[in-house]
Write a structure and sequence with these properties.
Elements (H helix, E strand, L loop, with lengths): L3 E8 L3 E3 L17 H9 E7 H10 L12 E4 L9 E2 L2 E2 L1 E3 L3 H12 L3 E5 L1 H9 L5 E7 L7 E2 L12 E8 L2 E7 L3
The chain binds NADP nicotinamide-adenine-dinucleotide phosphate.
């Protein structure tokens, strides 16, 4: 079956975004061949995006995958604006539904291909609902010092992962894990 994948870059000290959603540390990191990103782009049919990630996208406007992804995307928000989200000319859809329903909608739009999750908050919900299949982390050689952690759940049990790959790509180390259900 097609997979639900959380794909993210992370600093060595475990942040996916710096303070005030700073993402400058991501730009300029040498990703080498970029083979993992290319593979994800080939297999992905839709994106499920957290509202905070979308807000940063609106501000910085790099486009998803730097504009390389132009398929359907869905943005989860409890307070969706009247206007649909638009990224690089592609119109997405705001959703105000539970995580299971959101994943179902994205899967349908993906047409038998994978769905990629963007944003730590919604990725955590996918893990807790036992919906996530795989985590792909590009570890960037940066110490960010504060911001949004990869996984923030102070009161929950640890979530055990199964390592499947560790690959050097340029300055980054790509770590892949499958998530037991
Ligand atoms: N390093 C990377 O590769 C990478 C990748 C992606 C994102 N980021 C960064 O990560 C940061 C955002 O991550 P995040 O974890 O803080 O937030 P997020 O997952 O992007 O978004 C969380 C927001 O989504 C909405 N939401 C979540 N679950 C919902 C549900 N079930 N129903 C309706 N709405 C729901 C809520 O927004 P409302 O308040 O609107 O309800 C919530 O505040 C940004 O700075 C972004 O740039 C980094």
């Amino acid at each position: 079956m097609e997979k639900l994948i959380w794909h993210t870059m992370m600093s060595v000290d475990g942040y996916i975004a710096g303070r005030d959603d700073d993402m400058d540390w991501v730009f300029g990191v040498d990703r080498g061949s970029g083979e993992t990103v290319a593979e994800v782009l080939r297999s992905t049919g839709a994106l499920l995006v957290g509202r905070r990630t979308q807000d940063v996208e609106d501000r910085l406007q790099p486009g998803f995958y730097g504009g390389a992804f132009s398929g359907p995307f869905f943005v989860l928000s409890h307070d969706p604006p009247a206007e649909a989200p638009v990224v690089k000319g592609v119109t997405g859809r705001f959703l105000d539904v539970g995580i299971e329903e959101a994943v179902g909608i994205a899967r349908e739009a993906a047409g038998g291909r994978d769905v990629v999750v963007l944003g730590a908050n919604i990725a955590r919900q996918c893990i807790e609902a036992r919906l996530l299949d795989e985590i792909i982390i590009h570890v960037a050689p940066v110490l960010v010092g504060g911001g949004i952690r990869l996984f923030e759940r102070p009161d929950g049990d640890p979530a055990r992962l199964i390592p499947t790959a560790s690959i050097e790509e340029g300055e980054t180390t790509v770590l892949r894990y499958s998530v037991p259900r």
